[in-house]
Write a structure and sequence with these properties.
The protein is α+β, with helices and mostly antiparallel strands and about 130 residues long. The protein has helices at about 35-55, 70-75, 80-90; strands at about 5, 5-10, 10-15, 15-20, 60-70, 95-100, 110-120. The strands form 2 sheets. It has a 5-stranded mixed beta sheet with strand order 3-4-7-5-6. A two-stranded antiparallel sheet has the order 1-2.
Length: about 130
């Protein structure tokens, strides 16, 4: 899994992939503009990219935790956020938790998503070096 600034985006233990928290950082390492729905899309995309690097697919997700800095804003856009989930992850329904927080590592980040996945042996891609 990719390593950035002293942490891993994902750590594989057996068939279990622990997905580190992903905010809405883009390729230039900037939080995407536009609000909670756009940030949710980017953060979820980042999480699913790490999952795919290990051979996983969205249906391998067993748990997702979403941290938000503005719960009422998240709730107000729940239908749009649900549509983004459906578009990127499909109809799966892992266990989930939504947690309000006063701030995230990047001050402009409104959302951070982390997850846990179990990937079947036949699709599992183990890192070349440990």
């Amino acid at each position: 899994m990719a390593v950035a600034n002293g942490y891993s985006h994902g750590v594989l233990s057996g068939n279990t992939l622990y997905l580190g928290g992903q905010t809405a950082l883009d390729a230039e390492m900037r939080i995407v503009p536009g609000g909670i729905v756009e940030q949710y899309r980017q953060a979820l995309s980042n999480l699913l990219t790490t999952l795919a690097e290990a051979g996983g697919v969205p249906s391998d997700l067993v748990n997702v935790t979403i941290y938000v800095t503005d719960i009422p804003e998240y709730q107000a856009h729940g239908e749009e956020i649900g549509a983004v989930w459906g578009e990127l992850a499909g109809p799966i329904a892992p266990t989930m938790a939504g947690i309000g927080t006063s701030g995230l590592w990047q001050p402009e980040a409104m959302i951070e998503i982390l997850g846990l996945a179990v990937i079947p042996d036949e699709r599992l891609i183990r890192p070349a070096s440990v």
